[in-house]
């Protein structure tokens, strides 16, 4: 085996060149450009002036009043938008986990010949563009939509439920968009789980809750963590659901960034600065998780 590895070793680096080119051109270069733009000066007709400044970051964290002549104070407007985004993404992740784990367990415990059908059903909604799915959800939950009309027709409610332009509508949009991102990694982890461990625990008089807490969850933990990351990160920067299903009171960080790059009234350096702050926050969280996982693996 060692001899075969030595024969392939000279080819590894040349074969990785296309991968590094793609990663550099479509991942690292855009981030680098965004970092540079975050330190430039806003052009009043849109675009940037190549004068380096910290004004965009200063605008995010500090306010000096309408005319800029007041003592500097912490700017809570954008911090509250950040906090709302974290809250919505966190709730979405928890809801997806609560629904996704039983769903993944159900699929993984079906006969092998039917699991593909269940996975196929999970992915069917994702054959349609996310924009169309979000607009369809708005049509479904609007005041005179099918949901409200059905509830009123059977007498459960007297008037339409005001669902659109609420945090609940945004949460529904996020949950609907990212649920499969939770189901699939957990399914992959549960499918590899050795169910003989559960049988052994049962033989030792362990309750179902004890078996789940002490045996199942530690084994499938990597799949749960992967699912949480896959749901939380895109939900944190989502802008379609807040834009189409929420209102001004449900503004999220993705909508704030999107707004800065629209038309001539946008503020490109500020949008780039907000993007870099969001990126830094996510990277720090992922690095802390990777470090904790590394320590746990070293024990």
From TrEMBL:
<comment type="similarity">
    <text>Belongs to the binding-protein-dependent transport system permease family. CysTW subfamily.</text>
</comment>
<dbReference type="InterPro" id="IPR035906">
    <property type="entry name" value="MetI-like_sf"/>
</dbReference>
<feature type="transmembrane region" description="Helical">
    <location>
        <begin position="268"/>
        <end position="290"/>
    </location>
</feature>
<keyword id="KW-1133">Transmembrane helix</keyword>
<feature type="transmembrane region" description="Helical">
    <location>
        <begin position="47"/>
        <end position="67"/>
    </location>
</feature>
<keyword id="KW-1003">Cell membrane</keyword>
<feature type="transmembrane region" description="Helical">
    <location>
        <begin position="87"/>
        <end position="108"/>
    </location>
</feature>
<dbReference type="Pfam" id="PF00528">
    <property type="entry name" value="BPD_transp_1"/>
</dbReference>
<dbReference type="InterPro" id="IPR000515">
    <property type="entry name" value="MetI-like"/>
</dbReference>
<keyword id="KW-0812">Transmembrane</keyword>
<keyword id="KW-0813">Transport</keyword>
<feature type="transmembrane region" description="Helical">
    <location>
        <begin position="20"/>
        <end position="40"/>
    </location>
</feature>
<feature type="transmembrane region" description="Helical">
    <location>
        <begin position="223"/>
        <end position="241"/>
    </location>
</feature>
<feature type="transmembrane region" description="Helical">
    <location>
        <begin position="117"/>
        <end position="141"/>
    </location>
</feature>
<feature type="transmembrane region" description="Helical">
    <location>
        <begin position="168"/>
        <end position="190"/>
    </location>
</feature>
<keyword id="KW-0472">Membrane</keyword>
<feature type="domain" description="ABC transmembrane type-1">
    <location>
        <begin position="82"/>
        <end position="289"/>
    </location>
</feature>
<dbReference type="GO" id="GO:0055085">
    <property type="term" value="P:transmembrane transport"/>
</dbReference>
<protein>
    <submittedName>
        <fullName>ABC transporter permease</fullName>
    </submittedName>
</protein>
<dbReference type="GO" id="GO:0005886">
    <property type="term" value="C:plasma membrane"/>
</dbReference>
